Amino acid sequence: MKQSLALVSLAVLVAAFAVAPLFAQDAPKPLAIGGAIPMADQKMKNVDGKEIAVADVKGAKGTLVVFTCNACPYARAWEDRIVALGNEYKSKGIGVIAVNANDPEKVAEDGYDQMKTRAQDKHFGFPYVVDATSGLAKAYGASRTPEAFLFDAQGKLVYHGTIDDNAQDPEKVSSRYLSDALAAVSSGKDVPVKETKAMGCGIKFRA
Amino acid sequence: MRTGIPFALLAALPLLLAAAPAPAPSAAPAAASKQGPALTPAKAADVKKAITAPGAKAVLVNIWASWCGPCRDEFPDVLKIRRDLGSQGVRVILVSADFDDAGARADAVKFLSDMGVDFPSFIKVGKDEEFIDGLAKEWTGTLPATLVYDGQGTLRDLREGKQSYETFRGMVEKVLKDGSARPAS
Predict the structure, then answer these.
(1) What is the pLDDT along chain B (185 residues), one digit of tens a residue?
(2) What is the CA radius of gyration of chain A?
(3) Residues 166-185, chain B: which have Cβ within 8 Å of A?
(4) Most CB atoms within 10 A, among A41, A69, A162, B15?
C-alpha cells in the first residue's frame, strides 16, 4: 500500500514536472478577477484634448475599460458593437473609456489625429484616450486589441475578455459575453461568465 | 461493415505528409497549384493531429494573419527554421487566423505564395476560444503566436508577438536537446 502510494506520488510529481510550462517568456499576466482598477488616477489625453483618468469616468454601477485601437482588424470588426454597448451602458450608470496603447511609431493609423477622426466617425459617446507610455495596458496585463475589463461599483474586476464569440459576423454571435456582463453589473447581479478569450492583435507597446 | 479510413484523416493526409520533417522537394507535388498553396480549414483538434503525427522531435506552430504586420515580419524566419532544422526532426505548421471568407482566404493564399510557401498549411475555423484553449490554455489569443511542442504533443514553449530567428531556433533546439517531456510509458 505504502509502496503504491509512493509510486502514485512519484507519478504525480513527474506528471506535474512534465506539464509545467517552462516558458522563457514572461507571459502576460492580466489583472485577476476581483482585482482593483490599476492606475486609476493616471491622466491620459482624450480625443477632445482634455486629460482624463479612469477614475474620472468611474460609474455609479461600474466601469468599463476597453483596450482597442484604430488599425487592428479585430478591433475594427468589433468596433460598432463596442461603441453601441459603451453608449448604451454609459446611460445606465456604467463609466466607459476606450484606451489606445499602440505606439503610433509602429502603427501610423493609431496616431492621435486618426483617433479623433475615428471617435467622431463612429460616434464614440465616451472618451477614447492615448495610453502614451503603454503603461496602463501593462498595468492591466492587457495583451491584445480589443480586450475588455469591467469593474463593479466597488471597483473590483468582474469581467475580463472579449466582446462576444464572433468577431467576423455579428449575425452569428451566440454568446454576448460583454453585453451579458454589463447587464449583470448594471443591475447589481453576479457576472455569469467572468473570463473569455478571443483572437486579437498584439498591442504594439511603446519601448 | 468496413468503415474505411475516416474522411478527416484522408483530408489531412497530404498535410501530414508535407509537414513531415525535411520533405524532399517532390514530396508534395500537389501542394502548390495555380491557386497557390493548399490551405486546409482546421480546428484545434486538426492542428493537434498534425502536431502529434509520427516523425517529429519538435513541432513549431506559427499562428499568423495576412493583415498582421508583426506576423508578416517574422514569417521568413519561421520558414527559415523549417529549412534549417527540418532535417533534424523539426516540423513547422502554419495556421492562418485570417477570417473564414473568400476574400480573407485569398489574401492568406497570396501571402503564402509571395513567401514561397509550397507546402500545405491550415486556416483556422470555428470559435476562437475553442481554438485558443485547444492549442494552449496559456495563450491569450494574441497574434502572432508561436507554440512549440515536443513530438508527443506536449506544449513546451509559447511566445506571443513578433520573434527573431534566434528565439525560434532556441525554442525548438531546447526541445531537440531535452527530448520528450513525457516519461516513457
Answers:
(1) 344 444 444 444 444 444 444 333 333 334 455 678 999 999 999 999 999 999 999 999 999 999 999 999 999 999 999 999 999 999 999 999 999 889 999 999 999 999 999 999 999 999 999 999 999 999 999 999 999 999 999 999 999 999 999 999 999 999 999 876 554 44
(2) 19
(3) 170-171, 181-183
(4) A69
Backbone angles phi, psi at B36, to 5 degrees: 95, 180
Total residue length of chain A: 207
CB atoms within 10 A of CB B62: 26
Q: How far is A75 from chain B (nearest CA, A)?
A: 12
Phi and psi based region of residue B146 (left: phi greater than 0; alpha: psi -120 to 50; beta: remaining): beta
Q: What is the ipTM of this complex?
A: 0.84
Its pTM stands at 0.84
Pairing of strands B90-96, B121-124: parallel
Calculate the dihedral angle through the C-alpha atoms of B51, B61, B148, A145, rounding to the nearest 10 degrees: -130
In chain B, the residue whose alpha carbon lies closest to the alpha carbon of A166 is B127
Task: Choose from B63, B105, B128 for mutation: most chain A CBs within 10 A.
Answer: B128
